[in-house]
Amino acid sequence: MILEVLTYPDKRLYDIGLEVTKFDDELGKFLDDMYETMIAKNGIGLAALQVGKPIRAFIVNLVNENEVQDKNDLLEIINPKFLKKDGEIVYQEGCLSVPDYYEDVRRAEHIEIEYFDRYGNKKTLEAKGLLAVAIQHENDHIDGHLFIERIGFNKRKKFDKEYKKKAKTK
């Protein structure tokens, strides 16, 4: 089922996700719905908070070297904890909750996280480059933050001005 994606300035996007404690069929169905939604909206990641469920869960599915978004590469990340962040990368980010806006964001280039899968199995993942960026971006969502908070004062002022102008024309 395709879920509604909350968009800025919806206040629910600033909620903080609660730890997931039940790894059951309901969680699995919700993660499946998140995947369908992300694919339908042409995203590479989606956090539970973006579809109105304040839990610490998100998914990431990058396009592979064959330009295919293969579901076999899907990461379902629940209750993540960062073990390591190092290096620095600047990547142009966009967000399904901030449609049609892209900006350079500075993040850690290399990360290591510990998390749970949909079945409650504990996992560890090392990531670099775009995967590390996507994980940090989605983790920001479950911490109640949007990427536009990381773009610097002047770019944020410009974004707010453009957003208000666009909102008036709708």
From TrEMBL:
<protein>
    <recommendedName>
        <fullName>Peptide deformylase</fullName>
        <ecNumber>3.5.1.88</ecNumber>
    </recommendedName>
</protein>
<dbReference type="InterPro" id="IPR023635">
    <property type="entry name" value="Peptide_deformylase"/>
</dbReference>
<dbReference type="Pfam" id="PF01327">
    <property type="entry name" value="Pep_deformylase"/>
</dbReference>
<keyword id="KW-0648">Protein biosynthesis</keyword>
<dbReference type="GO" id="GO:0046872">
    <property type="term" value="F:metal ion binding"/>
</dbReference>
<comment type="similarity">
    <text>Belongs to the polypeptide deformylase family.</text>
</comment>
<keyword id="KW-0378">Hydrolase</keyword>
<comment type="function">
    <text>Removes the formyl group from the N-terminal Met of newly synthesized proteins. Requires at least a dipeptide for an efficient rate of reaction. N-terminal L-methionine is a prerequisite for activity but the enzyme has broad specificity at other positions.</text>
</comment>
<feature type="binding site">
    <location>
        <position position="141"/>
    </location>
    <ligand>
        <name>Fe cation</name>
    </ligand>
</feature>
<keyword id="KW-0408">Iron</keyword>
<dbReference type="InterPro" id="IPR036821">
    <property type="entry name" value="Peptide_deformylase_sf"/>
</dbReference>
<feature type="active site">
    <location>
        <position position="138"/>
    </location>
</feature>
<feature type="binding site">
    <location>
        <position position="137"/>
    </location>
    <ligand>
        <name>Fe cation</name>
    </ligand>
</feature>
<dbReference type="GO" id="GO:0042586">
    <property type="term" value="F:peptide deformylase activity"/>
</dbReference>
<keyword id="KW-0479">Metal-binding</keyword>
<dbReference type="GO" id="GO:0006412">
    <property type="term" value="P:translation"/>
</dbReference>
<feature type="binding site">
    <location>
        <position position="95"/>
    </location>
    <ligand>
        <name>Fe cation</name>
    </ligand>
</feature>
